């Protein structure tokens, strides 16, 4: 996971990339990513480290994946 985070954070267009374990659901990991634009995200999904990471899923017990992409304009403070 560390190498995946570091490789992703080093990609052009990555503004934020982190993992967090769910406090109430043991084994559930939330991934939060923020990319400059769709092109940067598409390049991320096509990257070598993503392919290598996905190959490790069975041995890590990673099964389900619920990917949701949100398009956001400018952040604002509340």
Number of helices: 4
- The helix content is 25-40%
Q: Unreliable stretches, pLDDT < 50, 5 or more residues?
A: none
Q: Order of helices and strands, N to C?
A: HEEHHH
Brief synopsis:
This protein has 78 residues and is of the alpha+beta class. The protein contains 4 helices and 2 strands, in the order αββααα.
Provide tags for this entry:
Alpha-Beta Plaits; two-stranded antiparallel ribbon; 19% strand; 78 residues
Describe this structure in words.
With 78 residues, the protein is α+β, with helices and mostly antiparallel strands. The protein has a single domain, classed as Alpha-Beta Plaits (2-Layer Sandwich), CATH 3.30.70.100. 36% of the residues lie in helices and 19% in strands. The protein has 4 helices and 2 strands, in the order H-E-E-H-H-H. The chain has helices at 2-9, 38-45, 48-55, 57-60; strands at residues 14-21, 29-35. A two-stranded antiparallel ribbon has the order 1-2. Strand 1 and strand 2 form a beta hairpin. The longest helix is centred in the first third of the chain and has 8 residues, at 2-9. The radius of gyration is 14 Å and the shape is globular. 3% of the residues are buried.
How do the strands and helices of this protein lay out in sequence?
Layout: H1 2-9, E1 14-21, E2 29-35, H2 38-45, H3 48-55, H4 57-60
Antiparallel strand pairs: 1-2
